[in-house]
Amino acid sequence: MSANQATSDDVLIGRIAKGDRLAMQVLFARHHVRVYRFVLRLVGNEAIAEDLISEVFLDVWRQADRFEGRSAVSTWMLAIARFKALSALRKRPDEELDEETASAIEDTEDDPEVAMQKKDKGQVLRKCLDALSPEHREIIDLVYYHEKSVEEVAEIVGIPENTVKTRMFYARKKLAELLKAAGVERGWP
Q1: For the chain, what is the radius of gyration of the CA atoms?
Q2: In this structure, are 78 and 10 located in the same domain?
Q3: Quick one: which of 59, 78, 91, 121 has the fewest CB in 10 Å?
Q4: What is the predicted pLDDT for the residue at 113?
Q5: Greatest C-alpha distance within the chain
Q6: pLDDT tens digits for range 96-114
Q7: Contact, 110 vs 164, CB < 8 A?
Q8: φ, ψ for residue 147, nearest 5 deg
Q9: Which of 36, 39, 155, 43 is nearest to 90 (CA)?
Q10: How far, in Å, CA of 68 to CA of 134, rounded?
């Protein structure tokens, strides 16, 4: 994210705090896809992720006047999103979670096109990422996909920076092992 966009996000939050709906639309357009993908990775259900995104941006609208600028706007929004996703997961019954997880893992028919996709390095990487523990997957997601610093990840997740570094170390180590087992020797930077 460029410095201009970070400044723009701060300006947008200031305008949102004063009830500017257009500023809210701009902020939503800029960030909803990345926030949605982050929530979807946590909850594993598109319908729930869609509902949570609405709640996240409603909270942004309602709480914009309380944003103090101690972190980037995107970091603040991801922290709200993470809290909502984890709350939603705690509310769901275990049977529902198990059934949804099982159905998400099931493969459709393996026609030649699907077989080729499964061999794709990106597909293998995604499967290996999914095999990480939720704690490790979350750290990898925030650092590499959302390009958050260790300090920002610590703020979003609510853990000390050293814990973020430790989880990052073990997540990368485990990911390397999974990729090697899947036949991808040098799949991680």
Answers
A1: 18
A2: yes
A3: 91
A4: 52
A5: 55
A6: 545 555 455 444 444 555 4
A7: no
A8: 55, 45
A9: 43
A10: 29
Do 118 and 37 have their domain in common? no
Q: For residue 75, what are its two tokens? A: 């970091």
d(C-alpha 172, C-alpha 167), whole Å: 8
* 152 contacts: CB under 8 Å, gap ≥ 6: 71, 72, 75, 142
- Where residue 123 sits, what CATH number does that domain have? 1.10.10.10
Which residue, chain included where needed, has tokens 């997601």? 141
Query: Residue 35's domain is classified under what CATH number?
Result: 1.10.1740.10
The pLDDT tens digits for 126-183 are 788 888 888 898 898 888 888 889 999 999 999 999 999 999 999 888 888 888 887 7
Residue tagged 């103090």 (tokens): 68
Taking a C-beta distance cutoff of 8 angstroms, is the pair 178, 128 a contact? yes
| Residue environment code for 139-173, b if the CB has 16+ CB neighbours within 10 A, otherwise e | bbbbbeebebebebbbbbbeeeeebbeebbeebbe
In the chain, % of residues over pLDDT 90 = 40
On whether the pTM is more than 0.70, the answer is no
| DSSP type of residue 3 | H
Distance between CA atoms of residues 47 and 36, nearest Å = 11
